[in-house]
Each structure stands twice: as C-alpha cells, then as structure tokens.
Amino acid sequence: MFEFLYLGSIFFALLSIYLLLFSKNALRSFSNYIFSLILFLEVFFIITYLLIYSGGINQVPQLFKAPAPFNFLIPPLAYLYVRSMLLNENKISFTELLHFIPFFLVFINYIPFYSL
C-alpha cells in the first residue's frame, strides 16, 4: 500500500527536478541546482529502500550500501540551499565546504566496500 506513495513521491520529485532545471521557463539559479540535487538524492534513497523492502535488492546487491555516504550530503546541501535563498549567494565559501567533511570521511570509509 505504501509503495504507491513512494512511487508517487519519486514521480513528483523527478517532475520537480525537470521543472526547476529543464523546462522552457526555468531560472536555473544556484539555489535550484542545490534543491534539485537534494531531490535527486532523496529519489535515490527511496528507490534503494523500495528495492530492499520488495526483495529486489537480491538482483542488484551492489546497491545495498550505495546510498549510505550520501545521507551525509543532505544536511550541508539543505544549509547551502537555505543560505543561498535567504542571502542570494551564488557560490560556496571555504568555511562552508567544511560541512562536507563527514561525507568525505564516510565515503573514504566505504571505498573498500565499493571496490569489492
């Protein structure tokens, strides 16, 4: 039953990404790129969850831990999105890059798993 809600959220997230970036009247601002990346990561997480829930992960076991380090990208990207919307900034400063350190540490930790 809840799978239909997840599939609907995937559809509407991909539709939102299309409207934000690829439609004829899209603004293509820095904020829209960040928000589209957040939506794309969420779609990736939902697809992986649905594969695990339905048992389809047995056909593609490489995707089992694939989204794990990307969970650490959502908070810094959300921070950058809010900051870019409120202050109308179009770039990332060096001090804001420090928020991505947990992602890089977890990604480095998962490199042996990905190389199997």
Topology record:
Layout: H1 2-22, H2 30-54, H3 74-87, H4 94-97, H5 101-114
Helix pairs in contact: 1-2, 2-3
Number of helices: 5
Helix percentage range: 55-70%
Number of strands: 0
In terms of DSSP E residues, the strand content is under 5%
Unreliable sequence segments: none
In round numbers, the mean pLDDT is: 92
Helix-and-strand structural type: mainly alpha
- Sheet bearing the most strands, described? none
Our Rg estimate from Cα atoms comes to: 16 Å
**Which overall shape is indicated by the principal axes computed on the Cα atoms?**
flat
Q: Write the H/E string, N to C.
A: HHHHH
Report how far the terminal alpha carbons are from each other. 35 Å
Describe the protein.
It contains five helices and no strands. It has 116 residues and is an all-alpha fold. Helix 1 runs antiparallel to helix 2 (30-54) and helix 2 (30-54) runs antiparallel to helix 3. The longest helix is centred in the middle third of the chain and has 25 residues, at 30-54.
What attributes does this structure have?
116 residues; flat; mainly alpha; 5 helices; single chain
Give a summary of the structure in a few sentences.
This protein is mainly alpha-helical and 116 residues long. Helices cover 67% and strands 0% of the residues. The radius of gyration is 16 Å and the shape is flat.
